[in-house]
Amino acid sequence: MPQSRTAGVPVQSRRPSLGFGPGPSPLGRLLLWIALLTGPLSSVCGAPAPPKFTKIPTDQIGVSGGVASFVCQASGHPKPVVYWNKKGKKVNSQRIETVEFDEGAGAVLRIQPLRPPRDENIYECVARNSEGEVSVTAKLAIIREDLLPFGFPSIDMGPQLKVVERTRTATMLCAASGIPDPEISWFKDFLPIDPASSQGRIKQLRSG
């Protein structure tokens, strides 16, 4: 290694070490620890990703005068915006309401009361961010109440208003019949309830 002399004393020239060679300096060790703790910037902020649906709406058959709700949700980075179209245009009606959740990455399309044939259509859910756009469709058909086919689902007992003390347990009952047995979904303020994300506070129990 080249040497320099100062006042007649041989001194080895040294470069500041940043921790990548033998004997790292305190500054080098600090930088290395920060890199190990935080990782690459892309892993902290999230790599850009186009929208991808996590919940897609399904075709429905509603009863005239009743209600229909379609649920749509997407993921991506940056977080996508989800909205609903009818005939290529954003839905706009006093009877058709869009309720957003998950900071706009999810949206419930709620139609009430159902009016045939005006509401019978194909509805499109669109998810968009700076990385791209995806869409999915669902069809709504409406039947008059006096023309319901045998086995069509019906609510036999709906939930009732309850007053419960704070920290106590509230039980809401709902019973439906049909052939085959219908599946029951719960909504709160027009938004779907997911018991899995309630940290055990909400449970859906089946009977019979």
TrEMBL record:
InterPro entries registered for this protein in UniProt: Ig-like_dom, Ig-like_dom_sf, Ig-like_fold, Ig_I-set, Ig_sub, Ig_sub2
One CC-aspect GO term: axon
Record SMART domains: IG, IGc2
Residue ranges constituting the Ig-like domain according to the UniProt record: 51-141, 153-189
Keywords noted in UniProt: Immunoglobulin domain, Receptor, Signal
Domain of life: Eukaryota
GO MF term set: cell-cell adhesion mediator activity
Presence of keyword NAD: no
Signal peptide: 1-46
Region of interest called Disordered, as start-end residue ranges on this chain: 1-20
GO biological process, any: axon guidance
Pfam families, A to Z: I-set (PF07679)
Alphabetized Gene3D superfamilies for the sequence: Immunoglobulins
Family matches, as PANTHER family: BASIGIN RELATED, ROUNDABOUT HOMOLOG 4
Name by which UniProt lists this protein: Receptor-type tyrosine-protein phosphatase S
Species annotation: Liparis tanakae (Tanaka's snailfish)
Gene that this sequence comes from: PTPRS_6
